[in-house]
Structures are given as C-alpha cells and as structure tokens.
Amino acid sequence: MNRKLGFACHFLLWAYMFLSPLPFWRGTGITFGQYLMYCLDPLFLMIVFYLNYLYLTPKFFVSGKHRYDLLINVILVISLGIILNYWKEFTNALYSVPGRHLDALDYFSRTLRDSLNFAIFAAGSTALALARRYVTADNALKESEAARAKSEYLTLRSQINPHFLLNTLNNIYALTAIDQERAQDAIQQLSKMLRHMLYDNQESEVLLSDEVQFLENYINLMKIRLSQNVDVTFVPQIARPDVKVAPLIFISLVENAFKHGISPTEPSFVHINLVSMCNEITFSIENSNHPKTSQDRSGHGIGLNQVQRRLELAYPEHYTWTKGVSADGKIYTSTIHIQL
C-alpha cells in the first residue's frame, strides 16, 4: 500500500510539472510539437531528481562521499542550465517566436535561474532518498527485533516445559511410595496439564479460563503430597470468560511458591489470587517464606527469570511486577498486574 501511494505521488508530481503550463498557453497558438519542445525543461528536472534519488545519493552521499556528490551535482545543474537555454532559443527560432535578442547577461541570468531550479530539485530528491532510506532501515530493524523477540519467546516457552515436568514428576515419584491410587489420579491430572502445554501453549494467547484450569490442576496435584499443616488456597475471579493471556505466564510463580513456601516441619501457607476485570489482570501470591539452604541449588531461579523475560516480550510497558519478603522475613509476596 505504501509503495502504491508513493508511485501515485510521483506520478501526480510529474503530471503537474508537464501539464501545468498548458492553461497559460491556451489561445497563444502554440502547436503540440512546440509544446513537446518546451517539455525539455520538466524532463531535465525529472532527470536531476531521479539521478539523485536512485543513484547519486545512495552511491556517494550515503557512503560519506559528500564532495563527489556535490561536485557531480554542480556540474550537472550548470550543464543542464546551459543546454536548456540554448534549446529554448533553438525552439523559439524554429517556430519563429517573436522576442528580443538575448545578450550575454541574459544568457547568464537565465542559466543561473534554471540551474538554481535544478539544484532545488537535486536537494529535494536527496532529502527524500535519505528519508526513504531511514524509514526502510527503521522498518527492517523493527522487523528484525520482532523476529528475534518472537524467536526468544518461543525458546522461553519450550524451556518451561522440561523445567515444569521435572518438578511435577518428582512429586508423582514421591507419591507412588505412599499411595498408588492417588498416584494414578495425579498422573491423570498431569495428562490434562500436558494437553494444555502441548496444544494451547503453541498459541500466542489462550483463554484465561483455560489457564486457570491448568493452574488448578497443578495446585491439586501439589496438594496431594502436602501435610495437614499447609494451607493452600486458589481464588480465581474472572469477570470476562473471553479474556486471553499469554500461556504459562503464572505457573513458574506457583512453582516457586510451593518450592519456597512449604516447610516439612512448620505450619505453612500458599495463597493465590487471580482477578480479571475489564482489560486488567492481577495475579498475586502470598506464601510463607522458607528459603532453600546454600546446598540446595535446584532450579537456580530459572523460573522467575523466565517470567520476567516473558512479561517483557508479551506485555512490554504494559505490566508491573512487585515482589519481595516481609520485614520479618516470614512472608513472600509477588503480584503481577497486566494491562491488556
């Protein structure tokens, strides 16, 4: 569409340059052949314009050879100015156009005038070529950045799967030693989550209701192996069921809450809330804080780093994420607010 618009603008410009003298020549007796002879003036303007636009500016000016570009243009506009004046005199003589005899000063002033017109067109075409090159380069850069961001986004999504599966399979493995029937239920829960990860995860956005169901399956799976002294709640409030969100954005936060918020000996809690109203989503987690020891390096913070990067790629400048530990070090909170 932009190319067609540009072509139309060029066409209208030169149609105006070639046809605009006709209303003033109407009734003067100028023949079509004489008109064609006078068309050398706009033809020279066209040559100056496109010679700079298509060749001189890209070859010399853009590459930093400004002196060569200036020298060629000075020679070009002066030469065309001289040729044009002699051509006009030849045309007037050929068609016996009355007029006074021109002296050297007249030739010089007319040549200077026409050369300045050519110079103006040369400068304008150079500026237009530079603007076009800038826009093209800027668009290419944006496309390159978008392609790189998309590639990085897909890579991050593929990295989530094995990280998530590793934690979940460890939980099921621990459960098999306690209760085989419940382990089978856990595997069924896992199959539902895998279906979401294998199919819905391939889309750039999924229904928030599907993502909520995925989180509920994961939380139910985690609760199977927890003791009675752990309080786990998940409260989703979705005002609009058709709201969409980037897939698997929140699962790493939930994983992190269960990893650091559960103690085998002390009372613990994980409270998760998700609120969706209009075009806003707020996901918050509050959990008891039981940090890993320096010897336990499982995970290495990969999940949270992925959350940060995925938020930047999926919702640039449209999200806030606040997180931290309370002053007494006993409670960890994390809240993501997304403007859709």
Question: Keywords for this structure?
Answer:
2 domains; alpha+beta; membrane; phosphorelay sensor kinase activity; Heat Shock Protein 90; Bact_2-comp_sensor_kinase; 14% strand; 340 residues; single chain; two-stranded antiparallel sheet; 10 helices; transmembrane; rod-shaped; transferase
Structural features, described:
Pfam families: His_kinase. It comes from Xylanibacter ruminicola. Residues 152-229 form the Signal transduction histidine kinase internal region domain. By secondary structure, the protein is of the alpha+beta class. The chain folds into 2 domains: 2-141, no CATH class; 178-339, Heat Shock Protein 90. The protein has helices spanning 2-19, 22-25, 32-38, 40-61, 66-94, 104-176, 180-198, 208-223, 251-261, 302-314; strands spanning 206-207, 230-238, 244-245, 268-277, 280-288, 319-325, 331-339. It has a 5-stranded mixed sheet, covered by helices on one side. Strands 1-3 form a two-stranded antiparallel sheet. A hairpin with a 2-residue loop joins strand 4 (268-277) and strand 5. It is rod-shaped, with a radius of gyration of 37 Å. The mean pLDDT is 83.
